[in-house]
């Protein structure tokens, strides 16, 4: 780093609504990562960005500086084109599980570096860890070999990808500066671009169970991330998909694996199949494989074969019975009519309270816990009919989960208006 600055001058520039220079951005991110810029100085800068925003050029440079703070993977020498998917997270969002083997079965390489869950949305690794024997941690040579042999790998992030973001995200969490689009977009994209994929499809969720509740905010986030990917030379598109109600009929680790396997077997709930296929088509088009129809690979078993090989390559037994919770509790309809609301956040919090998620990073999750829906928004129900089953190993949690779930369920006399699964497609 050649040029040095005083942190207070960088803060003042952004506080007064100015534009940070490339050199200022490079310096402040590097100096913060090394501990030379203090936490309180970075807090002030993050708040100034929160209040005054950043231009597209500033956010691109900020993202590049965060990528440069760590290592960057490179999959360009693989025999297949690589394409990755990132979801901003939602309730019952198990799409990565069927999607990665599906896209691999259609000819692409899918390096899917994933995380564990925190709060009401589940983590992909937590879900897969409910499969007996499956391990999340792989070394880089193992990842490469699996991409060559199977075409898909879902594993824990390796090495030090964007360490500046790790530090900054923890700081934003405690300084009220998470909800700023330039900071969210650069945080997500720095990690994704550092993973070294040649193309990226973003699934930006919108609705009560999503990070962004309003469609306009979700579209703005999608646009910001697509711009960042494009500026970094990664072919990037985004779909804004619905998260006002859970995706599919399950929320909880082993329950979601079971439902994903149903999709891979050619069945599964219509909304989950639709999101999986629309993302698969977007990913395949991004790497020039659009002549392949992923629906065929689901129907003829190729996607299931890829799933079995992907799980086995990481020590998992695809034929082993999945864990189930020791206790269940049914939720019954209290009136005849139509289910007009199954609120995503209510279901997510209930699943979390049943033990499917964690409140602190070090907590363990229950593999079998969660919520299984027997009816979804729009379905006709009769009084006394089962709407949902709650699953947990710790039955004292039922009352706590019901407190979250019941206000999110409503039965009315007329069917609710249909909500599209995909709201918007965003391209560069
Ligand atoms: N997820 C991230 O990785 N970063 C954010 O800032 C928000 C969500």
Structure description:
With 428 residues, this protein is an alpha/beta fold. It has three domains: 7-68, Transferase, Pyrimidine Nucleoside Phosphorylase, Chain A, domain 3 (Up-down Bundle), CATH 1.20.970; 83-158 and 168-319, 3-Layer(aba) Sandwich (Pyrimidine Nucleoside Phosphorylase, Chain A, domain 2); 327-412, Aldehyde Oxidoreductase, domain 3 (Alpha-Beta Complex), CATH 3.90.1170.30. It is 43% helix and 16% strand. It is built from 16 helices and 13 strands. It has a four-stranded mixed sheet, with helices on both faces. The relative contact order is 0.14. Bound molecules: uracil. The site of uracil (URA) has 6 residues, from α9. Uracil binds next to α9.
In short:
It is built from 16 helices and 13 strands. The protein is an alpha/beta fold. The longest helix has 17 residues, at 215-231.
The name CATH uses for the topology of the largest domain is Pyrimidine Nucleoside Phosphorylase, Chain A, domain 2
The poorly predicted ranges are none
* Beginning-to-end CA distance, first to last residue: 32 Å
| Hetero groups | uracil
The helix-and-strand class reads alpha/beta
- Helix percentage: 40-55%
Give me the count of strands.
Answer: 13
How is the largest sheet built, in terms of strand order? Answer: 1-4-5-13
Integer average pLDDT: 96
CA-based shape = globular
| Biggest pleated sheet | 4 strands, mixed
CATH superfamily of the largest domain: Nucleoside phosphorylase/phosphoribosyltransferase catalytic domain
User: So, CATH architecture of the largest domain?
Assistant: 3-Layer(aba) Sandwich
Radius of gyration: 22 Å
Number of helices: 16
State the CATH class of the largest domain: Alpha Beta
- Please state roughly what percent of the residues sit in beta strands, choosing from under 5%, 5-15%, 15-25%, 25-35%, 35-45% or over 45%: 15-25%
